[in-house]
Amino acid sequence: MKKLTKFAFLYLGLFLAFALVLSCIQLYVNADAMFESKSSDANYWITLSKAITPDNIGRKELIGFNGSEIEELKKWEEVKDIYPVVSNDFKVSADGGDFIPFYTDMYLEAVDNAAIDIQDLSEFKVQDNTIPIVISREYLNLYNYGFALNQGLPQITEGFAKKIEVNINLRLKDKNLRYKGKLIGLSDRIHSVLVPKQFLDSINATQDFSKQHKDIFTRVLVKVNDASDQGLIEKMAAKGYESNQESLRSAKIKSKLFLVLNAIAFIGAFIFLLCLFIIINFIKMEFLEKQEEVSIKYSLGYSPRKMVSSISRHFSINVGIVMLLCLICVSVGQYYLASSDITNGLLSPYIWTSMWALALIVPLAVFIIVNLLIYRWLIRSWKF
After folding, report:
1. What is the number of domains present in the chain?
2. How far is 276 from 369, CA to CA, in rounded Å?
3. Could you read off the pLDDT of 260-294 as tens digits, one per residue?
4. Rounded to the nearest 10 degrees, what angle do helices 358-382 and 245-289 cross at?
5. What domain range is 182 assigned to?
6. Torsions phi, psi of 255, nearest 5?
7. How far is CA 270 from CA 118, 265, 357, 364, in A?
8. How do beta strands 109-110 and 100-106 pair?
9. CA nearest to 176, candidates 189, 167, 185
10. Percent helix, strand, coil in the chain (nearest 5)?
11. Would you say 188 and 201 are in contact if contact means Cβ atoms under 8 Å apart?
12. 176: how many CB neighbours lie within 10 A of its CB?
């Protein structure tokens, strides 16, 4: 009865260890899916700017990124690609003409097409006095859910917004230009009003202000390996760089969550190693209790390796059964979690498929380790 109780506690410990480790692995996969679902790659793109201080306010040469700073950014191991954001060096305004009675001052920016999260950019070039525009999806949401509702104006769908043309007025050094502005897409990545880079560069080149601050960029769009990288965040803080806080906030939450999961998984792994140690001691006790029987078997020609392999195989099979039960329990939990309202249909109802392989890998590893350690102990202690 005492022996049975020991075995019960042993396998209960194994079940707890596997449950902790497997649950952490699946929660890690779930958290990764949940964070990534907010945007196609929201945690991998950040927009860098310099913090505004009394010393650099209004001075583009200080508040912007120069060539040497951009080259330094390229050397950061956390950075994959860098796309400087070009801003207008002239006054810009927009009006609706006779169709929509409005007027507003505005700004224009441009970035390489490779950084714009619009699938079809075939229309993103100035033709027939029409400037194609890409704006942030948040800007349209601000109009629809903030301004339009409060002012009694009609809300606008994305499809309808693409059909509206407005006048874009450029006040240059020596002349004024008027273009038609046409929306071709909404960006989830860049909070700005984007026009083709080649067009904006050509207009900026005619302005004295642009010549004075050549190759100085007020903002930089950066593709990083992981926005939750603490090394990246520390470098940004040391340089006085700021970024879109939502991406960094999500990244920080993600990193802290994963830190907790890693700690729990470590505890589970420790419990597993403790159970493995107990298994080895149980097997040693088995041999010590049956020392006379083992000696007789050896004298009759039984191989010590086969005797060790037989009892190690028994424990390995039991470990495999416990592992399989844990996988089934985690699968049931994942199914109900994915079906709940809090996940909003973002999670798969099935566990990570690679975890099923652990039902074979772990018992096999236990067999190899236990078999090797017990055999060495048996040969060394009993002097076969």
Report:
1. 2
2. 9
3. 777 877 887 888 888 788 777 777 777 766 666 66
4. 40
5. 90-209
6. -65, -40
7. 48, 9, 21, 19
8. unpaired
9. 167
10. 55, 20, 25
11. no
12. 10
Is the pTM of the predicted complex or chain greater than 0.70? no
Query: Is residue 23 domain-resident?
Result: yes
- Identify whether the C-beta of residue 178 lies closer than 8 Å to the C-beta of residue 166: no
Q: Which residue has the tokens 């209790």?
A: 289
Task: For the chain, list the strands marked E by DSSP.
Answer: 45-50, 79-87, 91-96, 100-106, 109-110, 130-136, 165-171, 176-187, 193-194, 219-224, 241-242
Q: Say whether both 204 and 255 belong to one domain.
A: no
Cα–Cα nearest to 266, from 32, 12, 25? 25
Instruction: Give me the half-sphere count of Cα atoms (radius 13 Å) on the Cβ side of residue 63.
Output: 12
3-state secondary structure 97-108: CCCEEEEEEECC
pLDDT tens-digit map of 182-206? 999 999 888 899 999 999 999 988 8
Q: Based on the fold, state whether residues 276 and 368 are members of the same structural domain.
A: yes
Instruction: Give the 3-state secondary structure of residue 86.
Output: strand
Whole-Å CA distances, 321 to 14, 24, 52, 361, 363: 11, 20, 61, 13, 9
Is 134 within 8 Å of 186 (Cβ atoms)?
Answer: yes
- Residue 371 phi/psi, 5-degree rounding, is -60, -45
Task: Find where tokens 């965040």 sit.
Answer: 233
